[in-house]
Amino acid sequence: MTTAAELLAGIPELAGVEPVTRVTIPARLEYTYSPGSAQTRFLTALPDKRLLAERCPRCTRVYVPPRGACPTCGIAATEQLELPHTGTVTTFCIVNIAAKGLDVEVPYCYAYVLLDGANVGLHARIGDTPYADVRIGQRVEAVWNEQRLGPSLASISHFRPTGEPDADPESYRRWM
Amino acid sequence: MPPEVLSAPLIVEFPFTRSTGPVLGAFLTGLRERVVLGARGSDGRVLCPPAEYDPVTAEELTELVPLGQLGTVTTWAWNERPRPYQPLDTPFAWVLVRLDGADTALLHALDAPRHAVRTGMRVAIRWADERSGAITDIACFEPAPNAGAPGDSHRAEGSAA
Amino acid sequence: MSGTDHLDAPTGLRDVAVVAFAQSSHTRRTDQLSEVELLMPVLHDVLKQTGLTANRIGFTCSGSSDYLAGRAFSFTMALDGVGAWPPISESHVEMDGAWALYEAWVKLQTGEADTALVYSYGKSSPGSVRDVLTRQLDPYTLAPLWPDSVALAALQARALIDAGHTDERRLAETAVRSRRAATANPHAQLRGSADVEELLRQPYEVEPLRRHDCPPISDGAAAVILAAGDSARALHVNPAWIRGIDHRIEAHQPGVRDLTESPSTRLAATAAGAFDAPFDAAELHAPFTAQEIVLRRALDLGDGVPVNPSGGPLAANPVMAAGLIRIGEAAALIHRGEARRVLAHATSGPCLQQNLVAVLEGAAGTEGGAR
């Protein structure tokens, strides 16, 4: 492969100049994001510390956050219901690398919490406990962010252990 | 009734740095130095912007030739209301310009009054004061000096076809 | 699988037909709907027409662009509306759905599937589609100048006017004809039009194009079901057989091309057999009035052939779905017995850079002639 410098060498007025090898032309696109009806219902209930979900009328799976459709059946998940603030850790990891733009100190524990009555895990952080104690099957409850209650998942600060005995693996095995 | 649908601003940014490769690297180097380069294809035609590979044979193109600072408008469109990030923030014409010595046309902006713009018009490069090796090193085109009247020479020395 | 059934002897191709078509009612905004909420009713409609369910479809292919709404991998979320469980055979193209249909047609040709669900959707309302489309341009020499889609189409229109192929009045006539045709299309966004004189009094958007020369900004979705051989005959009494389909692409740089011609359309049409017999109608994906002039010339479509009886993309232009809709509308003319042989065209890229042509036919003996 020829280089830019080699091509420039043949042109008297450009021979020997420092060749351009990279170009950075930043682009920025501005959108107005709308989450649609189902996620709007979920988000607008968060300031009231309510966790809204949807049930598929065919397979009866319960989805949270709801997205208006059952991804298994491909039909509208029409039945609305409210879930409790408690659940079970179905998987977790300890994050040691700070993500750009994320206002969270590392290390932190990131987990899937299967809310009681749900069939899909909610992404959440686990806190108020040594990370070495976090485990699959652990019972946890939501800690609300009283200063930042709003139509955003940031309304939930994190989940903390309830101190109950661990859940029966059969209760969450299919939904890990 | 569902609550009023939420909305939020969403900004997507593309901060990518791209490798330029030999041909585009040389082309952008030239712009930084106020020289426009074209690439000569296997059929003898000079392409500007230069292509990296021959449009007919797909061979790597390696013969770059300096082009004139003047050119001819091959088509145009009057942009009364410039949009964000476009080359000029006052009304201008989008133009395809065939630079003297080239056989294909380059897209850019032309800073000229509406009544002066026409196909076949002679135009000149206006260089940006600060150049970094980018297509925006050409600030825009402007009417060529002494070229206001119809019947100007549409061809300069070295022009093909 | 019945992959070797119904081979067409001269070409070795399987007979493949459009057996169902559905689309949303296209609108300027759908803030209340997520992509899947927009798409799902259309998927249910097209499945209901055939009595098929998602798990009985052999292959699913979709077309969309994450740039439109600024949502990365939005097509994976849209799959929620299909019901991809147990896992389905699926693919996606970052293209108009017409190219998803092409991929599905190829899949059916391999014999690995007898039926295919093809869908596409586009939500232009969250962003500024004119500016978003600049991001499809060459990142070194074009995109940094942010030439929007209307500007590029205006350069093409000027070249056509300079070459004597059209004028502003004829462009306005194209807009009026399209939007008045759309009065009969309940899915269209712009139905009806002021007259030519009134349109020509309006200011330019980017001269020589006025607002009426440009497509509306639309949110919408569309879906098609393809089936091969006996499956097609079982699913529709009058399948719209795809007698030929091909797509071709030209150089990206607008300054390299003669913008008054579309050799890629011409080649694709030749390969699809478009010039073998006359057409009863044509559905052309020409989002800008001047582009219809280019396509008519490339396709040898005279004034005797009704173009865009649906209203075309000038009446509703859900980006990424508008090309698939052309194929769907062409098939619907055949399904309804209003035409026997219809040309469908889809485009992609700036100034008609890439073009797809499909030739659709009903069974011999079907009453011909579009309205």
TrEMBL record, chain A:
Segments for region (Disordered): 155-176
Residue ranges of every copy of the ChsH2 rubredoxin-like zinc ribbon domain listed in the record: 45-76
Pfam families recorded: OB_ChsH2_C (PF01796), zf-ChsH2 (PF12172)
Gene3D superfamilies xref list: 6.10.30.10
Segments forming domain ChsH2 C-terminal OB-fold: 82-144
Designated name of the protein: DNA-binding protein
Organism: Streptacidiphilus pinicola
UniProtKB/TrEMBL annotation, chain B:
Pfam families to which the protein is assigned, alphabetical: OB_ChsH2_C
SUPFAM superfamilies: Nucleic acid-binding proteins
InterPro entries: ChsH2_C, NA-bd_OB-fold, Thioester_dehydratase-like
Highest taxon listed in the record's lineage: Bacteria
Segment forming the signal sequence: none
Gene3D superfamilies: 6.10.30.10
Domain ChsH2 C-terminal OB-fold: 65-127
PANTHER family on file: BLR3430 PROTEIN (PTHR34075), DUF35 DOMAIN-CONTAINING PROTEIN (PTHR34075:SF4)
Protein name, per record: ChsH2 C-terminal OB-fold domain-containing protein
Organism placement in taxonomy: Bacteria, Bacillati, Actinomycetota, Actinomycetes, Kitasatosporales
